[in-house]
Amino acid sequence: MTTSTTQTPLLNQPELPATMRAAILQRQGEMTMVTLPIPHLDADQVLVEVSAVGVCGSDVHYYEHGRIGDYIVDHPLILGHELAGRIAAVGSSVDPARIGARVAVEPQRPCRTCKQCKAGRYNLCPEMEFYATPPVDGAFAEYVTIQSDFAYDIPDNVSDEAAALIEPLSVGLWACERAEIKPGSRVLIAGAGPIGVIAAQAARAFGASEIYITDIAEDRLAFALEHGATHALNAKTDSVQGLGVDAFIGASGAPLAVRSGIKAVGPAGRVILVGLGADDVELPVSFIQNREIWLSGVFRYTNTWPLAIQLLAEGKVDLDILVTGKFGLAESEDALKAGRQPGQLKAVVYPGR
Predict the structure, then answer these.
(1) Higher model confidence: residue 13 or residue 289?
(2) 296-344 pLDDT, tens per residue?
(3) Rounded to two decimals, what is the model's pTM?
(4) Where are the beta strands (DSSP E) in 129-200?
(5) Which residue among 10, 129, 157, 329 is least enclosed by CB atoms within 10 Å?
């Protein structure tokens, strides 16, 4: 992570600049450009020259509100956790042959030794360091560091933008995995924003035969119908009750969408809550009990990058179609505000510009 302070000598490696540019969230609603030292490398890390960073809703939330739950921006923070780039240097225990490789970065550092990590659930590691989650800096910068095994090589036919958006794709893949989507599954997704569309594409890649998606915006529904969904329903006028789907994925976080989505699930179906909404939501408990519906949340992802890269390389998922705004590093604040504009899905920041 960019907060590492241990310097490892870099031998037989390209000469690097001493400093880099970064866009810093100084405090709620205030972004500034600063010059910082190039981050130091631990022995097992690689230094990534960042090529593209997607703007996530959490970045916007930190910018607008200065906090998400218990995570509070109480000191300057670099935002951005959806990223791709090129390896510029490696730590002493990493093969120098990796220098120059194009990579997609899984932006987290688990402890690898706790109960959750050893059980394979490293996304639930209590000591997790995650990009752009206070106090850990993110990727609105020219360089970042990450453990070598969390920097995944990407093929030439995968763009920098798509490689960066493997992070939100991983959310969709993890949701579909926990929903046990398989060939022939019928799925309902609430919310036709970026995560909803990504979840629809992921469900299609998993073999779902019917993919319903709901939203209140007709333009987003039309887009989702072109890029993954088989049925689009307006949440204001169309009822989903009685659909009897195998799985419901809540990508909007809206309490009404969660309740109605649960009632659209058939017996022994699965409900996966992805979108962040209210801390407490009233649920149809008797409906859940009587149908033995399995309900779970999603917290990030585990071991999703290899599958995501394969799906992108084979053309089974298209992330480039989500990019609706492109910004230089000095325009990061504009990128964070881009979602307010009609028709915007995904803004991407290019630190090299």
Answers:
(1) 289
(2) 999 999 999 999 999 999 999 999 999 999 999 999 999 999 988 888 8
(3) 0.93
(4) 129-130, 143-147, 151-153, 186-190
(5) 157
Task: Copy the structure tokens of residue 86.
Answer: 């090129």
CA nearest neighbour of 22 among 45, 43, 46, 53: 53
- Going by C-beta distance under 8 Å and a sequence separation of 6 or more, which residues neighbour residue 30? none
Residue among 71, 187, 171 at smallest CA distance from 129 = 71
Q: Where are the beta strands (DSSP E) in the chain?
A: 19-27, 30-37, 45-54, 67-68, 71-72, 77-78, 82-90, 102-105, 108-109, 129-130, 143-147, 151-153, 186-190, 210-215, 231-234, 245-250, 265-273, 294-297, 323-328, 346-350
Six-digit token string for 89:
């240097």
Phi, then psi, of 52 in degrees rounded to 5: -155, 140
What is the residue whose two structure tokens read 């505000």? 337
Token duo for residue 35: 């010059």
Residue with structure tokens 């600063």?
34
Q: Which three-class secondary structure state does DSSP give residue 83? A: strand
| Cis peptide bond N-terminal to 135, omega within 30 | yes
- Report the chain's C-alpha Rg in angstroms: 20
pLDDT over 90 (residue 141): yes
pLDDT given for residue 1 in this prediction: 53
3-class SS letters over 213-225: EEECCHHHHHHHH
Burial of 106 (0-12, 13-18, 19+ CB in 10 A): buried
CA distance 130 to 133: 6
- Please give the C-alpha separations between residue 119 and each of 111, 230, 301, 304, in angstroms, as whole numbers: 12, 36, 14, 16
| 3-state SS, residue 115 | helix
- Distance from first CA to last CA of the chain, Å, rounded? 22
Instruction: Report which of 195, 271, 265, 272 is spatially closest to residue 228, judged by C-alpha positions.
Output: 195
Give percent of the chain with pLDDT exceeding 70.
96
